[in-house]
Amino acid sequence: MDEFSRLLNWIGRHGGGNRLIDASELPTNIDIDGLDLDLHRSDLRQILSKLRMPSRRSYHLGSVTTGMAGIQSSASHRVVRGREGKRWKIYVSGPDFPDGEECMDEISSNDLLSEIESLGYQITLRQWIAMGWRPST
């Protein structure tokens, strides 16, 4: 049985009725991070609809350093989830932003994962799900 089928079975056993599951309850022995989002997109939506949306909407991702030695720059990034987890805003702050935090972009959840990875962050699908990420299409 593949990991996705195992996750579907687990959700079926633990998410009966109107009970919503917290993302922290998802089993750690199932490799959620290895799921192919494109292959399982429609089934994943069904699973995620059984998870409770976290009340927290703003998440600090950390800081990254870019540039060559001697001319490096650092920036901190934060993401803010839209109400349904399908739209996200990315904010940046740091020494190169004297006016404080600036909104970089508002993007769909489908584009969010690759955008954040291109900034240098390694955030797992399990962590995104815990933040309320949901597929936008």
Account of the 3D structure:
- The protein has two domains: 3-48, no CATH class; 58-130, no CATH class.
- 29% of the residues lie in helices and 23% in strands.
- It is built from four helices and four strands, in the order ααββββαα.
- It has helices at 3-14, 37-48, 109-118, 125-130, and strands at 58-66, 73-81, 87-93, 102-108.
- The chain has a four-stranded antiparallel β-sheet.
- Strand 1 (58-66) and strand 2 form a beta hairpin.
- The two termini are 27 Å apart.
Beta-strand level of the residues, as a percent range?
15-25%
Global outline: elongated
Work out the radius of gyration.
17 Å
Q: How far apart are the first and last residues' alpha carbons, in Å? A: 27 Å
Major beta-sheet overview: 4 strands, antiparallel
State the secondary-structure class.
Answer: alpha+beta
Tally of separate domains: 2
Unreliable stretches covering 5 or more consecutive residues: none
Q: How many helical stretches? A: 4
Run of helices and strands: HHEEEEHH
Seen as an oligomer or otherwise, the chain set is single chain
Q: What share of the residues lie within helices?
A: 25-40%
The total of beta strands comes to 4
* Strands side by side in the biggest sheet: 1-2-3-4
Mean pLDDT: 86
